[in-house]
Design brief:
The structure is a single chain. This protein has one domain (about 5-290): Spore Coat Polysaccharide Biosynthesis Protein SpsA, Chain A, CATH 3.90.550.10. It contains 7 helices and 13 strands. The chain has helices at about 35-45, 60-65, 100-105, 125-140, 220-235, 245-255, 275-290, and strands at about 5-10, 50-55, 75-80, 115-120, 125, 145-150, 160-170, 175-185, 190-195, 200-205, 210-215, 260-265, 270. The strands form 2 sheets. Strands 1, 2, 3, 4, 6, 7, 8, 9, 10, 11 and 12 form an 11-stranded mixed β-sheet that branches. Helix 1 (about 35-45) packs across helix 4 (about 125-140). The model is unreliable at about 15-20 (pLDDT under 50).
Length: about 300
């Protein structure tokens, strides 16, 4: 059996949500969204979970999850801290937060030697999505990585704007990802993204969207290192610039380092970007339990 890992990005502070949402309870037996992701991953054949967290969260995470998970899944932790940088680089005194999702993945290089998938801690991806990712990672095509493509209209919050990577796809190959940091569905149903200049640009909702569910072979960490160093050379003294995961994927494509396959998924995303999303998440999970997709208690002995 081929070992594959799930890398869970859980260091974000949830400023729009208002609390440490990674450990909030949504399932009928107090499960978090992370619990459902790990449960789906284990069913799909993942053998290890690596959490990227802040060191200040370590004890809470251990208490919340380590005792809960079955013994046959290996669990590791790595810390995403502001000063965790490649040798020779320093932090601007004005910088308050770590460097973004690309930085988060880079911090896990020492813990992962096998094909791995990346997910966000506060996003529910769906059983089928993780199954399709596992199938890719167990036997990845030579010189290829993977992105799970969601239909944009299946990834929006009813309570405010979201950030999504909008994908250009040719056949089954990713051509580029464009990060849109302000996408929303207006009251009239129209989906738009707001540009940096404040212009509203309409979207159809049928676009392929990335939810950061990506799969890589471990050689990709050298690309993350190189891209992060280049980013720091340009932005180390800029207190709010972020090193985004899609920027590394674009570099892989543009430099022809590897191909990135797009695997479409029929699943609908839900998450907890805003406080009002919490009730939607709870009801959705309750419905999935009622349909028999999940048991009432994921980790019942």
């Amino acid at each position: 059996m081929n070992d594959i890992s799930l890398l869970i990005l859980a260091a974000g502070l949830g400023s729009r949500y208002g609390s440490l949402k990674q450990m909030d309870q949504f399932g009928p037996s107090g499960e978090s969204i992370i619990d459902y992701s790990v449960y789906d991953a284990m069913r799909a054949g993942f053998t290890k979970v690596v959490f990227v967290i802040r060191s200040s969260m370590e004890q809470q995470f251990k208490e919340a999850f380590l005792k809960r998970f079955p013994s046959d899944i290996e669990v590791k932790y790595v810390f995403q801290e502001l000063d965790h940088l490649p040798a020779g680089h320093t932090v601007s005194p004005e910088r308050e937060k770590p460097w973004g999702t690309g930085h988060a993945v880079w911090t896990a290089a020492d813990q992962i030697d096998e094909p791995f998938a990346v997910i966000n801690a506060d996003d529910f991806y769906g059983r089928e999505s993780l199954q399709r990712m596992a199938e890719f990672l167990k036997n990845p095509p030579e010189n290829s990585h993977c992105l799970l493509g969601y239909k944009l209209e299946n990834t929006l919050s009813d309570y405010g704007y979201v950030s999504r990577g909008i994908c250009a796809v040719q056949g089954d190959s990713l051509q580029s990802i464009t990060e849109r940091t302000h996408i929303e569905r207006r009251d009239d149903g129209q989906i738009i993204f707001r540009s940096d200049k404040g212009e509203e640009v309409p979207l159809s909702g049928k676009e392929t969207a990335s939810m950061n569910l990506m799969g890589f072979t471990p050689d990709v960490f050298s690309v993350f290192e190189r891209c992060f160093v280049d980013f720091l050379k340009e932005n180390s003294q800029h207190p709010k610039q972020e090193f985004y995961l899609p920027s590394v994927v674009n570099e892989i494509i543009n430099s022809k380092i590897a191909e990135v396959k797009v695997v479409p998924t029929p699943d609908s995303w839900f998450g907890v970007t805003y406080p009002d999303d919490k009730q939607v998440a709870r009801q959705t999970l309750q419905n999935l339990v009622a349909e028999g997709v999940y048991p009432p208690n994921l980790w019942a002995k």
